[in-house]
Amino acid sequence: MLKSCVYTRFASLTPLHSNIHNNHQRVCFHLLSERLPQSRKLSSHARKVKATKHKNQLESVKHAERYHPPWFSVAPMMEFTDNHYRTLARIISKHSWLYTEMVVAETLVHQQDNLDRFLAFPSEQHPIVLQIGGSNLDNLSKAAELANRYSYDEINLNCGCPSGRVAGHGCFGVRLMLDPKFVGQAMSAIAAKCDVPVSVKCRIGLDDHDSYNELCEFIYTVASHSPTKHFIIHARKALLNGISPADNRKIPPLKYEYYFGLLRDFPELQFTLNGGITSIGQVNAARKQGAHGVMLGRAAYHNPWSTLGCVDSSVYGEPGVGLSRRQVLEQYQQYCDSVMGNNNGSYKPSLRLMVKPLLGLFHSEPGNGLWKRKADTALRHCETIEAFLEETLDAIPNDVLNSTISRKSSCGEDDFADVHSSLPFPYRIREQEMVYA
């Protein structure tokens, strides 16, 4: 006797045209139905996941009601999205979702007496997501338990980093995409030790494992074996043949059609689009075509004024902060003074690290080049942020310092208009055929 079952999902992609739909998404970004088809025999691991469902849903309610959903977020970037940058970003935008740098699970496990250095952040940085990396279930579970004390709004697992230090030796990062069942186990282990939603950030594939069906198998398997309902999709595959992480952000072609295919084939999940997007106009264009959320990386770091400065009004429909660059610098100086004046013996960063996030504040403005040259000189001898600003800001015209964000970005507003005409074939989930005599 032959017993087989073929399950196919077909769903139209509904653009976010109406305010009603947006308001609905605001409440239920993480309140997601459980329509993922399950295998006929649930594993004991899957039963444990199901038992924790109610708690996760209750936490999701509180999470959804507290903040706007992550329609816009700033990507986790090693050596960039530290406390200092996130503080500057939050001064400029009140509603952007911010991600930490990736923190390796083993680091937290072995630095339990020094966790503040890796996990502490000002309360003003909410909503904020902690990204962790690793491939050891015990350490990932323990790291989530340690991080839970710090009240992050979400915990994210890195399944997308192509760095040789991370993925090149078979450790973690994007190589985890080759073992989706393990990722499901890891996400369940993380979720069991924290009180907030969990998410996965991944690529659309790696090396020769780059078909749309393989991406869907990864998503389906992880979601079937864990409480994970949110995936951040970098719409490029990763190449692990020795090219640099920078080249991995440029050489593999963008395949936005894969992302929008996921929206069609997994309507019960939530997906954030990442990769190649550099303006708020493109953010809104993607959301107009149905994207649940959009994540920017280096564009938000190297040009924070024109990106983050437009988020609150253009993406969320809320009043902007209304600050000038001069006022932003004044608030950021207060933060730096508090960090430098901390006498409790904790880790204190250098002035250079605290100035680093400011270097993109005058992107493409008159005086920017001179200001950076003066900044390089000042950092050699200045000991306070106040002294640094006094020595360098005369390079920037007053009209630049005193102006506020007054324009919305229209660049890229027609992008993604034709994406639905090039979607891949719908994903078909074929349950394992069972043959018995």
From TrEMBL:
Source organism per UniProt: Aquilegia coerulea
One Pfam family in the UniProt entry: Dus
GO molecular function annotation: tRNA binding; tRNA dihydrouridine synthase activity
Gene3D superfamilies: 1.20.120.1460, Aldolase class I
Domain DUS-like FMN-binding: start-end pairs: 74-390
SUPFAM superfamilies in alphabetical order: FMN-linked oxidoreductases
Swiss-Prot/TrEMBL keywords: NADP, RNA-binding, tRNA-binding
Protein name per UniProt: DUS-like FMN-binding domain-containing protein
Signal peptide: none
